[in-house]
Amino acid sequence: MKSQQKCIMIFALVCCFAVLVALIFSAVDVWGEDLDGITEENCNKNCRVVLVENIPEDISYFDNGTAHLPLSVGLYNLLDKAIRVVEIVSPLWLLNSSDYESSFQPAAKQGRALLSRLQGLKARGVQLKISSGMVDSTELRMLAIHGAEVHYVNMTALTKGHLLSSFWVVDRRHIYIGSASMDWRSLATRKELGVMVYNCSCLALDLHRVFSLYWGLQYRDFIPSFWSKRLFALFNKHKPLELTLNSTKARAYISSSPDVFIPKDRSNDLEAISWVIQEARHFIYISIIDYLPLVSSSALKYWSRIDGLIREALILRKVRVRLLISCWEKTQPLTFNFIWSLRSLCMEQANCSLEAVSTRSHCTTVFTTLETHFISPCCTSCVSVCVCVCVRRSSSTPECRGMAVSRE
Ligand SMILES: *[C@@H]1O[C@H](CO)[C@@H](O)[C@H](O)[C@H]1NC(C)=O
Ligand SMILES: *[C@@H]1O[C@H](CO)[C@@H](O)[C@H](O)[C@H]1NC(C)=O
Ligand SMILES: *[C@@H]1O[C@H](CO)[C@@H](O)[C@H](O)[C@H]1NC(C)=O
Ligand SMILES: *[C@@H]1O[C@H](CO)[C@@H](O)[C@H](O)[C@H]1NC(C)=O
Ligand SMILES: *[C@@H]1O[C@H](CO)[C@@H](O)[C@H](O)[C@H]1NC(C)=O
Ligand SMILES: *[C@@H]1O[C@H](CO)[C@@H](O)[C@H](O)[C@H]1NC(C)=O
C-alpha cells in the first residue's frame, strides 16, 4: 500500500515536471517569435502586392498585354529591402550557368547576378538561411562559405518524395511565393509566375512558420508526431487573414502539403485548391506545367479530384475555364486526350467555355498530330482574348504554329 502511494507520488511529480518542461518550452517558443517585435497582435495587414513573371526569351506576343514586373527585378527589389534575414526554400540551386550555357543564352547571366547578390548579403549584415532538399550542391556549399546557413532536409528518408516548395521570407515582413526555383532557367528560358507581398508581416509570420518547419527537419530521418506550437498555422481556410492588398480588401491563408508535414490548423493544398475552384462564379484561369489527372508513384494511377471539380464548374455552374499548359518534349501524350475530353464536354453547351492553350513550341512530335484538331480550332475560334504566338524555331525564321496564349 505504502509503495503504491509512493509510486503515485513519483508519478505525480514526473507529471508536474513534464508540464513544467512543456511550459518552459512553449515560453521559449513565444520568445522566439518575439525576437524582432512582430507578433500576431501587432503585425501589419496593410500590404502591397506585385505580380512577377518570367516570359521565355524566345516567345514574343503580338498583343499589347500588360507585362508584369520581371521576376529577376522583383527578387532584387526584395533583397534590397532585407535588413535582418532572408529565408529561402527552393527545390533547385542552379543559378550559376556554365560558360557554355551563358554563351548561347545571354539571359543566363541573370542567375549569376542573383547568386552574387545573395553572396553579398553577409557584407550588409543580412543573414541568409536556406532549407534545401538538395544534398550535394556546389552552389549551396559556395553560399555556405559566404556566410549562408544551409539546412538539409532528407526528403528521401521523410516521405520518399522531393521538396518542391519555392518561397522567400524577408525579415518576416515581405514574402515571395512562385513557380520559379533558384535556377537560371527560371530567370531566362522558362515561363514563371509569382507574387511578391510587401509590408505584410501577418502573412509573412505564417509563411515563416512553414520555413521553420523545414528548417527544423535538418538531418532528421523521421517526421515528428507532435509539432511545436510555434509551427501551428496562424490562418487557414476556415479562419483566413483579413488584409488589404493595394487598398483592396482581401482574405488569405497559406496552405501546404503533404499531410504528414502539416501541423495543427494548416489547410492542405488540395483543400485550398478545391475550395478556390468550388467558390468560383465567373472564371477559373489556370497556368500549370502539366494537366494530367494521373499520378505516377510506381505505376500510373487515375487521380481525378481536380479534373472532376473543373468539370463540375464548367457544366453545372457555367464557369469559364482557361488553361495555360506547358508543352515540351516531356509532355505526356495523354495530356491532349484529357484536354480534348474537357473540350468535348463543352460541345453544344450554351455558355460552356473551355479554352486550352500552350506556351511552347518544343513538342514537335506531339503537336504535329494535334495541330489540326486541337490547336488550330482554338486559334481560329478565338475572339479577341486569345492571340496566336509566333514561335521561333531554332534554325528557321519565325513561323506561326497556331498556338495561342491567352492574355487579357
Ligand atoms: C500594387 O501597387 C504597387 C505600387 O504601389 C504596384 O507596383 C503594383 O503593380 C500593384 N499591384 C497590383 C496587382 O496592381
Ligand atoms: C496595340 O496597340 C496599337 C496602337 O495602340 C493598336 O494599333 C493595336 O491594334 C494594338 N494591338 C492589340 C493586339 O491590341
Ligand atoms: C560559377 O561558375 C563559374 C564557371 O563555371 C565558376 O568560375 C564560378 O566559381 C562559379 N561561381 C560560384 C559562386 O559557384
Ligand atoms: C537520406 O535518407 C536515406 C534513407 O534513410 C539515406 O539512405 C541517405 O543516406 C540520407 N541522406 C543523407 C545525406 O543523410
Ligand atoms: C508599411 O506599413 C506601415 C504601417 O502601415 C507604413 O507605415 C509603411 O509606410 C509601409 N511601408 C511600405 C514600404 O509600404
Ligand atoms: C447564357 O448566358 C447568357 C448571358 O449571360 C444568358 O442570357 C443565357 O440565359 C445563358 N444561357 C444558359 C443556357 O444558361
From TrEMBL:
A GO molecular-function annotation: catalytic activity
Keywords in alphabetical order: Signal
Highest taxon above the source species: Eukaryota
InterPro entries attached to this UniProt entry: Diverse_PLD-related, PLDc_3, PLipase_D/transphosphatidylase
Signal peptide region: 1-32
Domain PLD phosphodiesterase residue range list: 159-186
SMART domains reported in the protein's UniProt record: PLDc (SM00155)
Family (UniProt): Belongs to the phospholipase D family.
PANTHER family per the UniProt record, alphabetical: INACTIVE PHOSPHOLIPASE D5, PHOSPHOLIPASE D - RELATED
Stated name of the protein: Inactive phospholipase D5-like isoform X1
Organism whose genome encodes this protein: Solea senegalensis
